[in-house]
């Protein structure tokens, strides 16, 4: 991404797209009963409340009526249908793990099988996006959390929950990834890339160069440690510099890192994610902070900075919902990558015309 003169002026930035993650699949309802929706109607109402507060993308994970994270495609389908009816303006982004919560005490937190996750392409009504990880990787979500982050919760240091999430990994090998993107695209569902490193971004670029991934580069940089990058300005700058100019980048972190990262995103013209899946505390840890309050905080900060918040229609345009490409050449051009080298072509490459 380039930052030429004037790039820091709010009038030169796209409006801010706020993604909310209000379901918190890693938590038990008792961890934050005031803000963890369990019943279907309460989950739907939470999404409506988030939309009214200013979020225009919702990261969806379902729960069963007993409070456990739902691993059922049928439950996910039911939830998506109910949200779509109640909040048609919200961009619905299904978490590609469906649910990583352990089934019973002593189990390791785990992503579901390849075949089950492929089933997300058949959800009806169709979601707008499904998130996807690139390259199998450790996802130890508690590694950078301190004891105060999880004190009194089911993830407190030394509990079975803590050890279950410490051992979590993401299965995302190349054959599965390419097939999943193919199935999502065939159904008109956008792939939303959840990336942790430049190496993963380079894998996506190589897929695009081979014509195996003809989609917009809409992505989130996930800086949570534990196999992902740490949320610091050096890692962020390196990742942003690697992103092509046509990509759309959202930042995600965890616990007290979430707000500082989102403030950087607002100031840089990037986009933000918040909610109890990422953080449950105020910055002084004197109280828990629900998803709606986190959204309202970001709306206020962004407007004080001078950057307006996107409404549902504007967010769909910014996120290029419904846009797909017919060739590697078009994909590279639209996303701002240099073109593929032609046989015998020498020197550095650039597109003849801007995308």
Short description:
By secondary structure, the chain is of the alpha/beta class. It has helices spanning 40-53, 73-86, 114-118, 147-150, 160-166, 174-186, 198-209, 233-242, 258-268, 291-305, 312-318, 328-335; strands at 18-20, 57-60, 91-94, 129-133, 137-138, 169-170, 190-195, 218-222, 248-252, 271-274. It comes from Ramlibacter tataouinensis.
Number of DSSP-assigned strands: 10
Backbone shape = globular
Q: Helix and strand succession?
A: EHEHEHEEHHEHEHEHEHEHHH
Q: Please, how many domains?
A: 1
- Largest beta-sheet details: 8 strands, parallel, barrel
Q: Roughly what is the average pLDDT, rounded to an integer?
A: 95
Helix content: 25-40%
Look at the structure and give the CATH class. Alpha Beta
- Specify the number of helices: 12
The CATH topology name reads TIM Barrel
> CATH-wise, what's the superfamily?
Aldolase class I
| SS-based class | alpha/beta
Give the distance, in angstroms, between the N- and C-terminal Cα atoms.
Answer: 14 Å
* Unreliable residue runs: none
CATH architecture: Alpha-Beta Barrel
Report strand %.
5-15%
User: Going across the major beta sheet, what is the strand order?
Assistant: 1-2-3-4-7-8-9-10
Radius of gyration: 20 Å
């Amino acid at each position: 991404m380039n930052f030429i003169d004037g790039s820091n002026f709010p009038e030169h930035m796209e409006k801010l797209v706020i993604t909310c993650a209000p379901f918190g699949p890693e938590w038990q309802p008792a961890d934050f009963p005031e803000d963890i929706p369990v019943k279907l109607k309460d989950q739907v109402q939470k999404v409506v409340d988030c939309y009214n507060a200013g979020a225009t993308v919702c990261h969806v994970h379902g729960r069963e009526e007993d409070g456990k994270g739902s691993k059922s495609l049928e439950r996910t389908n039911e939830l998506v249908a109910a949200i779509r009816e109640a909040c048609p303006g919200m961009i619905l982004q299904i978490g590609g793990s469906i649910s990583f919560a352990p089934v019973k005490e002593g189990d390791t937190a785990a992503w579901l099988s390849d075949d089950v996750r492929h089933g997300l392409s058949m959800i009806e009504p169709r979601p707008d996006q499904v998130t996807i990880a690139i390259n199998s990787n450790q996802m130890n979500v508690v590694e950078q959390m301190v004891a105060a982050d999880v004190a009194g919760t089911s993830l407190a240091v030394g509990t079975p929950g803590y050890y279950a999430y410490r051992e979590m990994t993401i299965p995302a090998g190349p054959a599965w990834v390419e097939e999943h993107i193919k199935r999502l695209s065939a159904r008109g569902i956008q792939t939303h890339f959840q990336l942790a490193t430049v190496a993963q971004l380079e894998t996506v670029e190589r897929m695009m160069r081979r014509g195996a991934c003809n989609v917009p580069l809409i992505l989130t940089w996930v800086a949570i440690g534990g196999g992902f990058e740490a949320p610091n300005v050096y890692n962020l700058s390196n990742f942003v510099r690697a992103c092509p100019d046509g990509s759309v980048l959202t930042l995600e972190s965890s616990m007290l890192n979430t707000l500082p990262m989102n403030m950087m995103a607002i100031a840089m013209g990037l986009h933000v994610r918040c909610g109890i899946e990422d953080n449950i505390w105020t910055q002084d840890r004197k109280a828990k902070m629900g998803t709606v309050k986190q959204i309202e905080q970001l709306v206020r900060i962004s407007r004080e900075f001078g950057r307006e918040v996107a409404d549902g229609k504007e967010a769909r345009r910014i996120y290029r919902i419904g846009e797909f490409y017919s060739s590697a050449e078009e994909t590279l051009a639209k996303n701002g990558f240099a073109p593929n080298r032609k046989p015998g072509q020498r020197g550095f490459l650039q597109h003849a015309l801007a995308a």
